[in-house]
Specification:
It contains 12 helices and 14 strands. The chain folds into 2 domains: about 220 residues, P-loop containing nucleotide triphosphate hydrolases (Rossmann fold), CATH 3.40.50.300; about 70 residues, Alpha-L RNA-binding motif (Alpha-Beta Plaits). The two termini are about 30 Å apart. A 6-stranded mixed β-sheet has the order 6-7-8-3-9-10, sandwiched between helices. The longest helix is centred in the C-terminal third of the chain and has 15 residues. The protein is about 35% helix and about 25% strand. The chain binds adenosine-5'-diphosphate and magnesium ion.
């Protein structure tokens, strides 16, 4: 549904995108994950015909982004980093305005408008002035304008940035509810966001794609060991050493907290039962035992390290998606 082939973008002498290639299948949600300045917005602007690439080709729904921008725009909805809202209009007025711009007939506009207002949960505020709405509701209005012409493709640039935790959960739920019937690319610099919402993750770093895989496989591939955090009631004395002797435990590291440690366990092993039984049987007082997931910083450190060691080609040469047999803990 979306193809990006050997796309580069230069701003003067600065290369923002360097030979980027990826594809998104119909109905898939793809996370475009990378730190600030990685080139996410630049890629999205090229796909939405907001800006031409310097080299390479990009297509959406079979239309070329350079040669057939009207075809592309008819098939996609775009939520930019800052939603293009008019704060003095009501939600109704604004959606009518956008629908007219997208050349919906009055009849179709009326039915689409009531449908998207319902779909993104704006029913209680549709008559209110946008400038008076909370950030979470304004972001929903942004999503509503992207959906008004019922496009099969959605491009969402950091859709949860600036939202509070409750709003983030609602926005993620909304995006997930659009999956299947839509092909979606969403950008984010937050690893758990990519892991929680998407079927596949493309990691971009300094304008280049450094990894591409399903969330499960990506984190297991990047991980040398399973990490656990253990908190017990009894302050540390000999239990650090004793934990090290348990089968499957590679290392036990103290933390700043006197009764907490990080345990490195062998890959593909879930030692929660062993560890909890041990702690309880020894009377240490089990307070918390939880798996730790990699942070984005750790992922990038590892990827850029591997990039130097192995070259980008190997990183892109990954196994087919969805063959993971691992049972990962969902990210918090
Ligand atoms: N209009 C522009 N002119 C010059 N440089 C730009 C422009 N837009 C983005 N850049 C640069 O291109 C790089 C990628 O930016 P961007 O695509 O916005 O990254 P992201 O969205 O991942 O944070 C950054 O180094 C940024 O400074
Ligand atoms: Mg951006």
């Amino acid at each position: 549904m979306i193809t990006v082939q050997h796309v580069s973008k230069h701003y003067g002498r600065h290369t923002a995108l360097d030979d980027v290639t990826f594809h998104v299948k119909t109905g898939e949600i793809l996370a475009f994950l990378g730190p600030n300045g990685a080139g996410k917005t630049t890629t999205m602007r090229i796909l939405t015909c907001f800006m031409p690439q310097s080299e390479g080709t990009a297509t959406v729904a079979g239309f070329d982004c350079l040669d057939q921008p009207m075809g592309v725009k008819r098939h996609l909805g775009y939520l930019p980093e800052t939603p293009p809202l008019y704060p003095e209009l009501t939600v109704d007025e604004y959606l009518t305005f956008v629908g007219r711009l997208k050349r919906l007939t009055p009849r179709r506009l009326a039915s689409r408008k009531s449908h998207v207002i319902d779909q993104v949960g704006l029913g209680s505020v549709h008559h209110r002035v946008i400038g008076h709405l909370s950030r979470g509701y304004r972001q929903r209005v942004g999503l509503a304008q992207a959906l008004i012409h019922d496009p099969p493709v959605l491009i969402l640039d950091e859709p949860t940035v600036g939202l509070d935790p409750k709003q983030i959960i609602e926005m993620r739920g909304l995006i997930k509810s659009l999956a299947g019937s839509h092909t979606i690319i969403l950008s984010t610099h937050i690893l758990p966001e990519a892991m929680a919402t998407c079927d596949r993750v493309v990691i971009i770093h300094r304008g280049r794609i450094v990894a591409e895989d399903s969330p499960d496989r990506l984190s297991s591939r990047l991980r040398q060991s399973e990490k656990m955090s253990l908190t017990v009631k009894q302050p540390r004395h000999d239990w650090l050493e004793r934990l090290r002797t348990l089968p499957g435990v590679l290392n036990v590291l103290p933390t700043a907290e006197p009764n907490t440690c990080t345990i490195d366990c062998q890959l593909e092993q879930d030692l929660r039962e062993t560890l909890s039984q041990f702690v309880v049987s020894q009377g240490y007082g089990l307070l918390e035992l939880k798996p730790l997931s990699l942070s984005l910083e750790e992922v990038f450190l590892q990827l850029t390290h591997q990039e130097e060691d192995a070259g980008i080609g190997e990183l892109n040469d990954l196994d087919p998606i969805g063959q993971s047999s691992r049972n990962e803990q969902p990210p918090a």
